Amino acid sequence: MVRCHGADPQGLSRHRARGFGPAGGFPINKLFLFVFSLFFLSGAASAAALRVTGLQLGLNAGLTRLVVEADGPLNGSLSAAADGLGLVLTLSQARWDAAVPSSRAAGLVAGLGLPVDSAGQVSLGIDLVEPAVVERAFRLPPQGTVGDRLVIDLRPADPQAWQAAFAAPVSLPLAGSADILPPPPVSPGRLRLVVLDPGHGGQDPGAISAAGRYEKDVTLAIARAVATRLRQTHRYRVLMTREADRFIRLGDRVALARRHEADLFLSIHADSLAADRATRGASVYVRADDASDTDAEALALRENRADQLAEGAPARDVNEVVAILLDLASRDTGRLSSRFAGLLTASLGHRLTLRHNALRAANFKVLSAPDIPSALLELGYLSNPADEALLFSDAGRAELAEGVVAAIDRFFGVDDR
Ligand SMILES: [Zn+2]
């Protein structure tokens, strides 16, 4: 874009001064002018390009951060690599003039390729550990000895979100603070409502640990810890689908959130695997008709079974509760859910052990609200001694609660940069 040059004439003049050196003192004759003009013309092409002077990779509150430094404001794009799980960063009207970064793997980035200068732009391959999308990409002006910077923050994404995000190249910097804007601000005087859904309860204990402890107790304790912290911020109202050891049908959990017009719905669970004490770590799920993998599909089947334990009248099917509302569903709900789940994964990964590919998708009934961004957090595995100890400790619960609140703040745009 032409704009990037006009915005920083100093950057170009600095470059020109270095590139051409002092011209005074030379005899001025036709030959020199000819040679000089050739030099100038060839130099003009590179003078039009910004010099990329640095590249850094690191972590910022769980998000994977890439910082590109140049002698002027950069424009570019991120697109999906032609093969494999990767991205290509393209910096327009730029040329590489920096050392190869010392840190070439961090967070979601498995490796950085070597920069390639071609046709007045720089391309750089980025191999990913798991699917990632741009949470935000913004410029920072020069400061002290540091030049203009383009900052790109990546967050984890479920496979569908990854595909949708890079159906076309993503322009950098992003116009807004995120590829998906946060939900619209609430009217003055109204706090956003977060509904926390502690899984299971009453006659349904959920998963059971090796030591005989119940999922329904862990989920309630963590939901309480999250609720307390959320209320302490004075930024949210909090409603829990159950405050005590009660059985609640899945459809009623969704209906409660809808009735109160929740801004966010978070269902909290913990898993257990028979005959597998090794698997551990938290994972986060969004709803999808097609599961991201067989593990996620099996988990959704286990969690959806909760209603079979209902006593008395047959359970009101969750599909009945929401079917009538489906035509009202905002297409953005799925994207917002996915964004929240990505932020939650990043925030928890910053603090705790996560499963590999921690952000997954499956057909969870409790995530069926068509108009409320919803995610399901699996805290860990009660069948794993380390996870069990963590989930039944005050310190572990505090860390989890803090991670959840940080993700909610970021989702609603409270936490900026
Ligand atoms: Zn559960």
Can you tell me about this structure?
This protein is α/β, with parallel strands linked by helices and 417 residues long. Helix content is 31%, strand content 27%. It folds into two domains: 50-172, Sandwich (Immunoglobulin-like); 192-411, 3-Layer(aba) Sandwich (Aminopeptidase). It contains eleven helices and 17 strands. Strands 3, 4, 6, 7, 8 and 11 form a six-stranded antiparallel β-sheet that branches. A six-stranded mixed β-sheet has the order 13-12-14-17-15-16, sandwiched between helices. Strand 3 and strand 4 (86-91) form a beta hairpin. Helix 5 packs across helix 11 and helix 9 packs across helix 11. It is elongated and about 75 Å long. The relative contact order is 0.12. Residues 199-200, 206, 215, 269, 303 line the site of zinc ion. This is N-acetylmuramoyl-L-alanine amidase. Keywords: Hydrolase, Membrane, Transmembrane, Transmembrane helix.
